[in-house]
Predict the structure of Imidazole glycerol phosphate synthase subunit HisH.
Amino acid sequence: MIAVIDYGVGNLFSLRSSLRSLGLEAAVTADPAAIRAADRVILPGVGAFGDAMARLNESGLAPVIRAEAARKPLLGICLGMQLLFDKSCEYGEHAGLGLVPGQVCPLAADLADPALKVPQIGWNALRILRPDPLFRYLRQGEYVYYVHSYYAKHCAESTLAVSDYSIPVTGAVRSGLAWGTQFHPEKSGDAGLRILQAFAEL
């Protein structure tokens, strides 16, 4: 069973629907016992980093996530991926879960082409930098769907894939049993479903 963590941030039910369309058992839950009992965990999210971390800390879910990431596959999606990092500079400096080395920074400040819009919204090709089981059903250059204004930096050792947005934007990362995608697999059509299927097989 895959536990989709519900901490009040994000459209969890579209993600659950995508998982169920693949025939995968998934439960949207904030119950630590259910998260511990699950075979795999997904941390989704949209919105502000600081607010999301505050909710995880206040609910007691932050230490549960850290502990479970040491013993089973965890996938962070969009803001969920950003929360895996050491810290974020979004509206001040906020500590993250510390599962992936690096930090989350404003995309607009680093773009080589200032005419590009932020947030980055839409489809972009994924350039896989290193092989990983998460990409076992994915081909080089397939398109995935992004919606974000901040991105992960100083994480080259953990970066699995990037997308070009005048600069290489971190698209997917891995550290130990913690994976993250800045893009939304559940909004990325067939390619995204194949990524979720691969995650279910990790």
Observations:
- The chain has a mean pLDDT of 96.
- The two ends are 13 Å apart (CA to CA).
